[in-house]
Design a protein that fits this description.
Layout (H helix, E strand, L loop, with lengths): L2 H5 L3 H27 L11 H31 L5 H26 L12 H30 L2
Helix pairs in contact: 2-3, 2-4, 4-5
């Protein structure tokens, strides 16, 4: 029997819920702050304002699906008293950082769906965007290592 079975927590499902919620939260922050409040970009920047707005709606719908799915998993674990809080916090950071890096590398640079901001030069914004994602991801990795150590010593 593993240490996780002794305590009754389900770290795998807890990590899944945290990842889903972390992705959903970072997508929400991106959409609310950078798409709506600052109006720096849309999810898909095209000449048609209607399509750009529609693409923001798709991003919003996706973020809500991630948040709701993660919340249902977390609620189920909490009710069954199988929730692992340290693993959840780590997964939140991993999901948020992973989303930020994916958005900065894939959406901004590889697919060219949009830029962080349409200014010249754009590279300082890219460095800040992807760098913030890396910092959050590293914090999540450290938190996960700490959570695993803590679980192993129980």
């Amino acid at each position: 029997m593993s240490a996780f079975e002794h305590t009754g927590v389900n770290t795998r499902a807890t990590l899944q819920s945290g990842l889903l919620i972390g992705i959903g939260l970072m997508a929400a922050i991106d959409e609310i702050v950078f798409h709506q409040l600052l109006a720096w970009h849309h999810f898909v920047d095209v000449r048609s304002g209607a399509f750009a707005l529609f693409s923001d709606g798709l991003l919003h719908a996706g973020e809500l699906l991630f948040l709701v799915a993660g919340a249902f998993i977390a609620r189920s674990l909490l009710q069954a008293q199988r929730f692992a809080p340290r693993h959840f916090k780590a997964a939140l950071l991993l999901g948020a950082g992973g989303f930020q890096i994916f958005d900065g590398v894939v959406d901004h640079k590889i697919l060219g769906l949009h830029q962080v901001r349409y200014v010249d030069p754009v590279w300082p914004y890219d460095v800040a965007w992807i760098g913030a994602g890396l910092l959050i991801l590293v914090a999540g990795m450290l938190a996960l290592r700490n959570a695993r150590r803590h679980s192993a010593h129980q």
